[in-house]
Design a protein that fits this description.
The protein is 79% helix and 0% strand. It is flat. Helix 9 runs antiparallel to helix 10 and helix 11 packs antiparallel against helix 12. With 364 residues, it is mainly alpha-helical.
Length: 364
């Protein structure tokens, strides 16, 4: 007798297949959420048209918003149609087909929920901007003050870029020096290790805006010649001191992530401690910490706006002058737009480096 004939249905009956998962609940949730999103889009479209006196651009924008919210209806309808189809297949004892159909129906419902949720986020933002008769839009997005402040604000923004570039160069160098000081071995390196630890602890604890105030107004008292230095240079020094403490920890994490066998192999070849650092450890560590370094530099770029506390003519201080002139916060929003334009490409570049590093580690 063959082995397949040893067990029969009389001795061990085959289990009944599990029914396919329900589609009705998730499809109903998708329908409700999609309806709410579409209704909200219609309402916000009417607000936009009312605020802009039913102009042609506002009408086009309202139509685009409503049609975009309607994208969720197609997968939602497909999910709803899967409910009776699933029941029909189960009635015909077609369990496998019903399971496949139910899986597609649930996926369509989840897609509809995702689109509808995104639509509700947009509706919430539009309500914040155009609600209360467009109070936020009038205050923050009035084009007239923005256009008048644009040229001066753009020129002032170059100060932010200059300060960020100077500070980033200093941070890259000093951060590595402090990180190496924290990793010096033996009793001879103990005093420098203590200084490095205190440096990182103190300057990570002091808010950047406080340190800028201290350095910009305190340095000329300690160094009389610094009274003639540009305020932007003193601000760059302040940010360099602050971010060196953060970047030193990033460097240290990269250096300690190198396997000890790398250092042992270098020393066994006769390399000294400094040569091992320069040729083996530091190059590998820098490649590993590039993404977090760029994240810190994005934060440094934004913190250049803090120089306004020291009366440095950067973009935030310039736009606040226009704000006080026109009694609208729209020029300050222009400063925010400048930072967004320069920061988003850096953020996407960081994502690219992270993905590339992950692919390299995975052998892709």
């Amino acid at each position: 007798m063959s082995s397949t004939g040893l067990v029969t249905d009389e001795l061990q009956p085959s289990p009944d297949p599990n029914p396919p998962p329900e589609v009705s609940k998730v499809a109903a949730a998708a329908a409700v959420l999609t309806a709410v999103a579409t209704g909200g889009a219609v309402y916000e479209g009417s607000l936009i048209r009312t605020y802009n006196h039913s102009s042609a651009p506002s009408t086009i924008a309202a139509v685009v918003i409503v049609l975009s919210s309607a994208l969720a209806w197609w997968p939602c309808v497909k999910a709803l149609r899967a409910i009776p189809a699933r029941s029909s297949l189960l009635a015909d004892d077609k369990v496998v087909e019903a399971r496949r159909l139910a899986a597609r129906g649930r996926e369509d419902a989840q897609i509809a929920i995702g689109y509808a949720a995104a639509g509700l986020v947009v509706v919430g933002i539009l309500q914040f901007v155009f609600g209360n008769h467009g109070a936020v839009a009038d205050t923050f997005f009035d084009w007239s003050p923005i256009s008048k402040a644009f040229v001066d604000s753009l020129q002032a923004f170059w100060t932010n870029i200059w300060v960020a570039c100077v500070a980033e160069v200093g941070v890259l160098i000093l951060g590595l020096v402090v990180a190496i000081m924290r990793l010096l071995p033996g009793r001879a390196g103990a005093p420098l290790r203590l200084i490095a630890v205190l440096y990182c602890d103190i300057f990570r604890a002091i808010p950047a805006i406080v340190l800028i105030y201290i350095i910009v107004f305190g340095t000329p008292l300690a160094i009389p010649a610094a009274a003639n230095w540009p305020g932007a240079l003193l601000g760059a020094i302040s940010l360099t001191i602050t971010y060196t403490a953060y970047v030193a920890e990033v460097y240290r994490a990269g250096l300690t992530s190198i396997h000890p066998s790398q250092s042992a192999a270098a020393r066994s070849l006769g390399l000294g401690y400094s040569m091992t650092l320069r040729t083996v450890l530091v190059p590998q560590a820098i490649r590993r910490v590039i993404p977090p370094l760029l994240n810190d530099f994005i934060g440094l770029q934004k913190d250049t706006a803090l120089l306004s506390i020291a009366a440095v003519a950067e973009v935030f201080l310039t736009t606040t002058f226009y704000q006080n002139t026109y009694f609208k916060i729209s020029p300050v929003v222009l400063a925010a737009i400048f930072f967004i334009v320069i920061t988003i490409p850096q953020a996407r570049f960081v994502d690219y480096l992270i993905d590339r590093d992950a692919a390299r580690r995975a052998g892709g």
